[in-house]
Amino acid sequence: MALHFARVEYDRRIAATCEAMARQGLDGLLLFQQESMYYLTGYDTFGFCFFQCLYLGADGRLALLTRSADLRQAQHTSIISDIRIWTDAAGASPATQLRDMLQSLGCRGRRLGIENQSYGLTHFNGKLVDAALDGFARLADASDLVNRIRVVKSPAELKHVRKAGALGDAALKAAVRRTRSGADEGEILAAQQGAVFAGGGDYPANEFIIGSGRDALLCRYKAGRRKLGKRDQLTLEWAGVYRHYHAAFMRTLIIGAPRKVHHAMDAACREALAAVEEQLVPGRTAGDVFAAHARVMDAHGMHDHRLNACGYSLGAKFTPSWMDMPMFYKDNPAVISPGMVFFAHMILMNSKAGAAYCLGRTYIIGEKRPEPVSTMPLEMITRQ
After folding, report:
1. CA 164/CA 197 separation, integer angstroms
2. What CA–CA distance (Å, rounded) separates 290 from 307?
3. The predicted structure's pLDDT at residue 1
């Protein structure tokens, strides 16, 4: 099997999940998040774009309902032995077949947790599940049950995060080598993604972000490429990815002489990131981190150019986003603990001046101080 952890690691995760289920009075879990399936069993697929559900009983029993295309995927990548197939056919009713599976597992009349907040359970399919299980079992929202467990990474997971960090550094070095006046954005993007693949890494859970000129002010990927001018700016947001574990980074590279506004933004971003690092310690909250970021940015006169969030948790994530919870925003009470992994991004976008500047990297939370998973310096990167 193509497992990325020892069996004892999966057994530990399942046991922790069963303990959490017991505290909430649940007899079983209906898992629709691909992240939960991967975390608990190793099951690795993008087949969650169709209906599929992993059942975890209070006794640790596993059963997967999926499509025929994912049968061998589950057999090859996971510890699941009980794999059932719902039928692709006109008038197919996978929710009804889910009820049939649960009936065979003795779940009638039981209290079952369900991951409602999931890309793997559309509103359409969620209504079908509710209808199929109405009167059969009592459902309770458990969208965050596994999420709260997997937010703290094990030593084995942190090895993958550090590898992802090294791949992220390789991607930045590749981008810097390609960045120059006249360079095509497509070449830079290809160099970044190629460095991750060449290092044994994987596709990211969302597209790498690249933009130059006024498009350097965008925080999302968009289609279309341009060539860099003699005096330009290039914003990159990318991630090193290893076994689906992400280490995200963000930088704005300056082509030609930096403008005065770029120097001001650089000073604000570096000071804000340093202030954020002081809050990335056990016992602080996600809200404390954002407050440090906002205080410094506002003191530099950057209030109108900063965002209302400055980072988020990272881990093993699937399409459409590598973002995880908790997020750094105002008054978020989520407490930071050792073993958590966070991407802290200092983003400034000045629309009036047409200037952008971003600085961000990923950290592992330690007992006393955060560990950057990058060895790259934070100084402004300029190219000719």
Report:
1. 11
2. 10
3. 59
How far is it, in rounded angstroms, from Cα 223 to Cα 218? 12
Domains 7-150 and 155-383 share a fold: no
What is the tens place of the pLDDT at every residue in 102-160? 999 999 999 999 999 999 999 999 999 999 999 999 999 999 999 999 999 999 999 99
Condensed to tens digits (0 to 9), the pLDDT of residues 15-71 reads 999 999 999 999 999 999 999 999 999 999 999 999 999 999 999 999 999 999 999
Chain centroid offset of residue 182 CA: 33
Q: Which superfamily does 7-150 belong to?
A: Creatinase/prolidase N-terminal domain (3.40.350.10)
How many other CB atoms are there within 10 angstroms of residue 138's CB atom?
12
**E strand segments, 83-171:** 83-85, 111-114, 138-141
Beta bridge partners of 364: 341, 371
Closest C-alpha among 228, 225, 220, 304 to residue 261: 304
- The number of residues in the chain equals 384
Strand partners, 361: 344
Order the strands of the 62-66 sheet from edge to edge. 83-85, 62-66, 53-57, 28-31, 111-114, 138-141
The fold for domain 155-383 equals: Creatine Amidinohydrolase (3.90.230)
How far is Cα 367 from Cα 173, in angstroms, rounded to an integer?
30
115 near 31, Cβ under 8 Å?
A: yes
Angle between helices 185-198 and 155-178 (to 10 degrees): 150
Which residues does residue 53 pair with via DSSP β-bridges, in sequence order?
65
pTM beyond 0.90:
yes
Would you call the peptide bond into 320 cis, given omega within 30 degrees of 0 as the criterion? yes
- Domains of the chain: which residue ranges? 7-150, 155-383
Side-chain half-sphere of 210: how many Cα atoms within 13 Å?
Answer: 24
CA distances from 154 to 124, 282, 302, 338, 367 (A): 36, 16, 38, 10, 14
Q: Which pair of structure tokens corresponds to residue 316?
A: 């093993």
Residue 192: pLDDT band (50, 70, 90) is: very high
CB 66 within 8 A of CB 47: yes
Q: Is 182 left (phi over 0), alpha (psi -120 to 50) or beta?
A: left
173, 147 in Cβ contact below 8 A? no
